[in-house]
Amino acid sequence: NIAGHPRAAAAIHPSDTRPLRGLQIEGTVRLLRAHEALRAIRVYLRRFPRARRRFSLRAVLEEQGDLRCFRFVAERVFILSEKHFGWGNRVLLALAAETAARMNEPR
Predict the structure, then answer these.
(1) What's the pTM?
(2) CA 7/CA 2 separation, integer angstroms
C-alpha cells in the first residue's frame, strides 16, 4: 500500500555480483497519474522504443492494465564495493543540495 507506506528501496548492481558492488537507494515513491504518467511513459519509450508493443498507452493512462508508473524520490544513496570497502560496508554518498533537488524534479 504505497499511499499509506510510501517508503521504498532499490538496488542497482551488475548481474555478476561477486565481489559485491553497486548502489543502494532509499526514498519514497508515489503513483503517477494522467499527464505525469504520460510524460514518464514517453521518457521510457525514448530509451526503450521496442517496449511500445508491450502495453497500451490508453490502458496505462486509464489505469486498466497491470502497468503503473511511479516516481521514486531518492533520499539516501549508498555505494557498495566489497573490493574497496570490505564485506558488509557501504558508503553514504553526499550530494550537494542543488544536485539532490535537480535529481528529484520532474522532467
Answers:
(1) 0.70
(2) 8
